[in-house]
C-alpha cells in the first residue's frame, strides 16, 4: 500500500468535489438553475473526484491497485459520513448518505480498473 498516494488521492477527490459543490451552490444562489438539475451535477462531481483520486492512487502503486483505489473511496466516505454526523447532530431522515457511499465505492472501483 502506498499511504502517500492514498492521502493524495483523497485530497484530489475532496478538491474536485468541493469545486463542483461550490459551483452548484453558486448556480442555485443566483437562480441560474433549480435544485432539480444541480443536485445530480454535484453527485457527478463527487463521483468524478473520487474517480480521479482512485485513479491517481492506482497509478502510484506497483501492486494491490484495487486496495489503494478503494482505500481512497473508504477514506472519502468515512470523512464525509463524520462531517454529516457533526453538522446535523445525527443522521438526517431524508439522507442520501448510502447513495453517496455506494457511488464512491463504484467510482473507486472504476478508477482502479482505469488506473491499472
Concise overview:
The chain contains 4 helices and no strands.
Describe this structure in words.
By secondary structure, this protein is mainly α. The protein has one domain. The chain has four helices and no strands. Helix 1 packs antiparallel against helix 2 (35-60) and helix 1 (3-29) packs across helix 3. The two termini are 15 Å apart.
What's the helix and strand layout?
Blueprint (H helix, E strand, L loop, with lengths): L2 H27 L5 H26 L4 H24 L8 H19 L1
Helix pairs in contact: 1-2, 1-3, 2-3, 2-4, 3-4
Provide the descriptors you would attach to this structure in a database record:
mainly alpha; 116 residues; globular
Helix tally equals 4
Would you identify the regions where 5 or more consecutive residues have pLDDT less than 50? none
Number of DSSP strands? 0
Taking the sheet with the most strands, its summary is: none
Structural class: mainly alpha
- As a percent range, the share of helical residues equals over 70%
Question: Multimeric state of these chains?
Answer: single chain
User: Overall 3D geometry?
Assistant: globular
Strand content: under 5%
Taking the alpha carbons of the first and last residues, their distance comes to 15 Å
Average pLDDT, all residues: 92
Instruction: Report the order of strands and helices.
Output: HHHH
What's the number of structural domains?
1
